[in-house]
Specification:
The structure holds two protein chains of two kinds.
Chain A: E1 4-12, E2 15-20, E3 24-29, E4 43-49, E5 52-58, H1 59-62, E6 75-81, E7 84-90, E8 92-100, E9 104-105, E10 110-111, E11 114-115, E12 119-124, E13 130-134, H2 136-139, H3 142-152
Parallel strand pairs in A: 2-13, 5-7
Antiparallel strand pairs in A: 1-2, 1-8, 3-6, 4-5, 6-7, 9-12, 10-11, 12-13
Chain B: H1 4-30, H2 35-55, H3 58-75, H4 83-104, H5 114-125, H6 134-146, H7 155-166, E1 170-178, H8 185-199, E2 200-206, H9 209-213, E3 220-227, H10 231-239, E4 244-252, H11 254-271, H12 275-292, H13 299-305, H14 319-346, H15 349-373, E5 374-376, H16 378-381, H17 384-395, E6 398-404, E7 409-411, H18 412-433, H19 437-442, E8 448-458, E9 461-468, H20 475-484, H21 490-494, H22 498-503, H23 526-535, E10 539-545, E11 549-557, E12 562-570, E13 573-578, E14 582-589, E15 594-596, E16 599-604, E17 607-613, H24 614-617, E18 630-638, E19 641-647, E20 649-657, E21 671-676, E22 682-686
The chains are: A mainly beta, B alpha+beta.
């Protein structure tokens, strides 16, 4: 018997993704971002969130999806994982749903262009809607990024 | 009564007293005749005893009480400080420290101190080679040489001998004769003692150990000795030493011991009438009653007499409250900058005036808040003299520790963390750096090795250097060991600079010491040291001259949470440069820039310095100074070296609050952190040291 969890739903392109609500601190509208030089390409910079400096990741960039212009609906989701605070830029975020963990199934190899290891699973919430649950620890895993960047160089 | 509320106070104060006891003992050791130091030690011990007794820590109190008895004799000039008294007192301090440690960790502070207490009591009771005060000792020494060779044992020494016989040890009376033609009698005697101490315990000697060391004996000396070895074994061992003529050994049983006891007692009484013996007996008679009187009766008078160094008046504040204060103040500072901005826009005279006043008050406040968090490195350094003393003794080396700059202040958080790494580095310097006395003499150095411990400010960093004049680091040895352990390959090693090779010492699982001692050399340690220092945002560099010595230099950020900085603009981006590393600002024309070997240089006060393009290093999207006819420069300095940073515009000087970039981002070269400007934007703080190679 799985437990019921609340999930923040956000969009990248047409796909819908979910992050457990207790890992999300706030959701912010776009604010001016201070560029940080000489760092990962998908790190857009840092922002001031009520006196705390927080690095901002473009989630599209992180998953090597095509980048798009930021719009009115663009949001920054601030998450806290493993004592790290990081903001994700997403296309939009406007839903919170209840989900039973039993509904989460193992992800296929690649979903919406994202490798399975960044995913915790896939949940079918309606006939039509497929929610992709992110594995935040993997998304924020620095070791892997460092390898990735050094290959690119 | 509930004692818990006093517990933290007790712990704090005990630690203070223990620290000052340690310090003063060391001071006294170098200066054993200075009775004013003894007074200070006595008072500390006394206070400690009182506190411990109030809090119900009986063992702690009884041990300090015994120490106090010894100290009382010393300060009343009834007892001269000697090496073994120092050792016993230091051991007592160690025991006290571990008890207090136990209490801190929630324990009861109980410990078996009976051994130390016994030896302290022994000192008080006069089981001392020469218990006389300084003024009578020379006379007595002369007298002693003429005395017959039987040793007078006191009550306590009898009981030790008695007890060891009961416990199955052998109590021996030895008389050692040294050959007449021997030139260095003291050395031979020392060798005998050294040999004896390895397999037993010397209870009493005649003449006293001191006199023997100073060759104040004829041909023979005698002693009482406790051991497990047989008479024949002992005889053989001693005769194996060269220039020993003969040894006579008598094994004592309890009966003969009792007989001797009676004899010596009666002889004492008889001797009392003899003028020569009188001095000696009164000396020891006075000693005993003095020890048992309560030292407090005399304390007040003495305190008034030598009231040296009244401590500054302080209150203790929970460090967390200071952190909260600091955070609140940083918030206030951001608002202040914002207010200043608004006021300058509003152009309202009264508003501007008020804001200006507020700014002044807040900068005073800032100074105070910052100072609250600063602690002199002395709080870390003060434990090292004692540590070096102990290390030197256990490693049988001679070491001088020279501390400079202990008043240098560092942020509390850094102070808390830096202790362990420094301990490691110093142990390393003493164990691996400084050679043994023999090796040093062979290398033509003085037998005493020197460890320099230095702290000083430079720019917005604090440097702590541990420099010794030991054997230095040999590149080949390090490489050989590193290759053997698979840390690097041979080809990699050959291409490394000396500095890179030295850094290998910090690799995990690396130890070059050929002999692993219990002090250091377990191969864990230096890598932990580096990890810790890196975590503090600092780094370690090693400079070494083989055969001459090694310098471990630890660079630490002055993690001041608030610094003065110059704000500059490059295109749409703003950066903050700490004022501490700025030498000057200026403007240069394009034709002043020269190209030397492909590097851009400008002349600054008669010197050519490199012109660094910030916009290129940081790939600033909307500014490039090479298109400008004139460009603003900031001249920065790191040690002796200088460089010019080209920027677009100065914004102005400002107090900024240092914020970390968060745990996610890796260390970025040239950026030390971020700050929040008055308009709420984040600006990166540059670390100019990174630009100067």
């Amino acid at each position: 018997m799985g437990e019921d969890i609340k999930v923040i739903v956000f969009k990248l392109g047409d796909e819908e993704y979910g992050i457990e609500v207790d890992k999300v601190q706030t959701i912010e509208r776009m604010v001016p971002i201070t560029r940080v030089p000489k760092t990962f390409t998908f790190v857009k910079g840092v922002i001031n969130l009520r006196g705390v400096v927080i690095p901002i990741i473009d989630l599209r960039g992180r998953f090597s999806l095509p980048l798009i212009e930021y719009t009115e609906s663009t949001r920054i989701i601030i998450v806290a994982v493993n004592e790290m605070e990081v903001g994700f830029i997403v296309d939009s975020a406007n839903d919170v749903i209840d989900l039973n963990t039993d509904k989460i199934e193992n992800p296929p190899e690649v979903v919406g262009g994202i490798k399975a290891k960044y995913l915790q699973g896939v949940a079918k919430i309606d006939e039509e809607r497929l929610l992709i649950m992110l594995n935040l620890s993997e998304v924020l895993n620095k070791n892997e990024i460092i390898q990735l960047e050094s290959i690119e160089e | 009564m509930d004692m818990n509320q006093y517990l933290s106070m007790f712990i704090d104060e005990s630690n203070d007293h223990l620290q000052s006891l340690n310090e003063k003992m060391l001071e006294l050791e170098t200066n054993p005749d200075d009775l004013s130091i003894v007074q200070v030690i006595f008072r500390s011990a006394h206070t400690l005893k009182g506190m411990a007794a109030t809090m119900g820590y009986e063992d702690l109190a009884s041990l300090t009480h015994q120490m106090e008895n010894v100290l009382d004799l010393v300060r009343n000039e009834k007892l001269a400080m000697q090496d073994f008294i120092f050792d016993t007192l230091f051991k007592s301090l160690d025991a006290l420290e571990s008890m207090v440690e136990d209490i801190i960790n929630g324990g009861t502070g109980k410990a078996d101190v009976s051994l130390i207490v016994t030896s302290l009591q022994a000192i008080v009771l006069g089981e001392i080679p020469s218990p006389q005060g300084g003024n009578t000792s020379t006379k007595v020494d002369e007298v002693k040489d003429n005395m017959n060779h039987s040793i007078q044992l006191d009550e306590f020494q009898f009981s030790i001998l008695d007890q060891s016989i009961m416990e199955g040890h052998r109590a021996l009376y030895l008389e050692v004769f040294i050959r007449e033609d021997c030139h260095l009698k003291a050395v031979r005697a020392y060798m005998v003692f050294d040999l004896l101490e390895r397999s037993g315990e010397v209870i009493k000697t005649h003449p006293s150990v001191e006199d023997i060391e100073q060759e104040k004996f004829d041909r023979s000396f005698s002693l009482y000795y406790i051991t497990q070895k047989s008479v024949d074994e002992m005889k053989q061992m001693i005769l194996n030493l060269s220039e020993i003529d003969k040894v006579s050994i008598v094994e004592l049983d309890r009966e003969s011991l009792n007989l001797m006891g009676e004899m010596s007692n009666s002889s004492k009484e008889v001797a009392a009438t003899a003028e020569l013996e009188l001095e000696k007996t009164t000396g020891s008679n006075v000693l005993v009653p003095q020890a048992t009187t309560q030292p407090t009766s005399q304390a007040p008078k003495e305190v008034v007499k030598t009231n040296s160094g009244t401590p500054t008046r302080t209150i203790r504040v929970d460090i967390e409250r200071l952190d909260v204060l600091m955070n609140l103040f940083s918030e206030l500072l951001i608002d202040r900058v914002r207010l200043e901005q608004l006021a300058s826009e509003a152009r309202n005279h009264e508003l501007t005036e008020t804001v200006e006043h507020m700014s002044r008050v807040s900068s005073d406040l800032q100074n105070i808040v910052l100072k609250l968090r600063m602690v002199p490195v002395d709080t870390v350094f003060n434990r090292f003299p004692r540590m070096i003393r102990d290390l030197a003794k256990s490693l049988d080396k001679k070491i001088d520790l020279v501390i400079t700059g202990s008043e240098t202040e560092l942020d509390r958080t850094v102070i808390d963390e830096i202790g362990d790494p420094l301990v490691h580095l110093i142990r390393n310097a003493v164990d691996h750096g400084i050679e043994s006395v023999a090796e040093r003499l062979a290398a033509g150095k003085s037998e005493v090795g020197t460890v320099n411990l230095r702290a000083f400010h430079s720019g917005n960093h604090v440097f702590i250097e541990i420099e010794e004049d030991g054997r230095g680091i040999y590149r080949e040895n390090v490489l050989k060991s590193a290759i053997k352990k698979g840390v690097v390959t041979e080809a990699e090693g050959a291409a490394m600079t000396d500095e890179e090779v030295y850094q290998l010492l910090f690799a995990a699982g690396f130890s070059t010491a050929e002999v692993i001692s219990d002090v250091s050399g377990r191969g864990v340690g230096l890598d932990v040291v580096r990890a810790k220092i890196t975590a503090l945002g600092g780094h370690v560099t090693i400079i070494s001259t083989p055969g001459k010595g090694t310098n471990f230099s630890v660079q630490l950020p002055l993690t001041l949470s608030i610094i003065s900085a110059m704000l500059v603009q490059l295109g749409s981006e703003k950066y903050a440069i700490p004022l501490t590393s700025i030498v000057e600002t200026g403007v240069i024309k394009r034709n002043q820039i020269r190209t030397v070997h492909g590097y851009k240089m400008v002349e600054f006060r008669g010197v050519q310095i490199p012109l660094i393009s910030l916009s290129r290093i940081f790939s600033v999207p909307d500014f490039d100074e090479s298109k400008e006819e004139e460009s603003e420069i900031i001249v920065i300095r790191k040690g002796e070296k200088m460089a010019a940073l080209a920027i677009e515009d100065f914004i102005g000087q400002s107090e900024i609050v240092l914020k970390s970039l968060g745990k996610y981002l890796p260390q970025i070269k040239g950026v030390s952190g971020a700050t929040i400007l008055g308009d709420g934007q984040v600006a990166l703080i540059l670390d100019p040291n990174e630009f100067i190679k």
